């Protein structure tokens, strides 16, 4: 009996409810060297070439064998490097299995710190290579500039500029899902920091640059402009509500995001988005 319970417990741990439904894998090609793998969790960029393979983000540990199989349909070989755009588990969950296979995990210093406090000092979830403001990976005749943006979605976000492929992996700075971003204020995120990061990316790209969002479909500069305008509108509405209603509960009750015509997911409902915007904007721009 005890053994059955233990087996069930192990099964529960390796098969979280999120994977009860079959993952539908899809690959989109940006150039012959750069592909995007859509599965469950953060979108994965796959760079292939004469020197091998590297990826940006790795979804969940339980999906790592599927991810390897999908990569092998593009080019055989294990990733030499895995770049994490930030510490959230739907972007770093595969770090341990990829590191065990020999991949070198790269991330901002704060990603390592946050993963270390969650998983312990000896965990192979932790990135081996960390950086501060930026780092450039010269591999496969691509020069991938990994740029840190402070206090945006979290305090450890990195955006990857593929300078040859003319594409950018934006991590969760960009949700192309027809809704507002998740500003993780408990992990150093900020509405104004996020907007500042988006303005900078917008300045650096051209109309034909392909944008890889953390979640949702690929986009272009014009889509980023709409996303920025949406966040600016939401910010203005929440600031107006703060000026009138003051307290967090009264602002949420006033429903300032109503009328924007957005869809909200079950894990990030409108009230939570409003609360996160309130907490971020009050820290920065209003009374305590
Ligand atoms: Zn995230």
TrEMBL record:
Q: Which residues form the signal peptide?
A: none
- Report the residue ranges that make up the Metallo-beta-lactamase domain in this protein: 42-215
Q: Which cofactor does it need?
A: Zn(2+)
The alphabetical list of record keywords is: Hydrolase, Metal-binding, Zinc
Tell me which Pfam families the record gives: Lactamase_B (PF00753)
GO MF entry, a single one: beta-lactamase activity
Which SUPFAM superfamilies does UniProt cross-reference here? Metallo-hydrolase/oxidoreductase
Name the InterPro entries for this protein: Beta-lactamase_class-B_CS (IPR001018), Metallo-B-lactamas (IPR001279), RibonucZ/Hydroxyglut_hydro (IPR036866)
Superkingdom of the organism of origin: Bacteria
Record's CDD domains?
Answer: metallo-hydrolase-like_MBL-fold
GO terms (BP aspect)? antibiotic catabolic process
Protein name (Swiss-Prot/TrEMBL): MBL fold metallo-hydrolase
Identify the species of origin: Pseudoalteromonas xiamenensis
């Amino acid at each position: 009996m005890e053994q059955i319970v233990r087996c069930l417990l192990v099964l529960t741990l390796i098969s979280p409810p999120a994977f009860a439904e079959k993952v539908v894998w899809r690959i989109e090609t940006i150039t012959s060297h750069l592909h995007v793998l859509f599965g469950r969790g953060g979108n994965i960029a796959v760079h292939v070439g004469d020197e091998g393979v590297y990826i940006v983000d790795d979804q969940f540990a339980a999906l790592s064998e599927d991810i390897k199989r999908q990569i092998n349909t593009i080019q055989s070989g294990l990733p030499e490097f895995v770049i994490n755009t930030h510490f959230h588990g739907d972007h770093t969950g595969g770090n341990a299995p990829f590191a065990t296979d020999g991949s070198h995990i790269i991330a901002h210093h704060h990603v390592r710190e946050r993963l270390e406090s969650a998983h312990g000092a000896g965990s192979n979830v932790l990135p081996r290579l960390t950086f501060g403001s930026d780092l450039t990976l010269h591999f496969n005749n691509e020069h991938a500039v990994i740029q840190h943006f402070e206090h945006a979605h979290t305090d450890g976000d990195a955006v990857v500029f593929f300078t040859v492929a003319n594409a950018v992996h934006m991590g969760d700075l960009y949700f192309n899902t027809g809704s507002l971003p998740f500003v993780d204020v408990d992990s150093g995120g900020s509405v104004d920091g996020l907007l500042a990061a988006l303005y900078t990316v917008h300045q650096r790209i051209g109309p034909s640059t392909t944008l890889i969002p953390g979640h949702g479909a690929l986009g272009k500069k014009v889509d980023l402009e709409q996303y920025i305008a949406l966040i600016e509108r939401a910010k203005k509405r929440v600031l107006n509500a703060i000026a009138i209603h003051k307290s967090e509960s009264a602002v949420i009750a006033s429903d300032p995001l109503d009328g924007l015509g957005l869809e909200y997911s079950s894990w990030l409902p409108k009230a939570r988005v409003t609360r996160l915007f309130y907490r971020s904007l009050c820290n920065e721009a209003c009374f305590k």
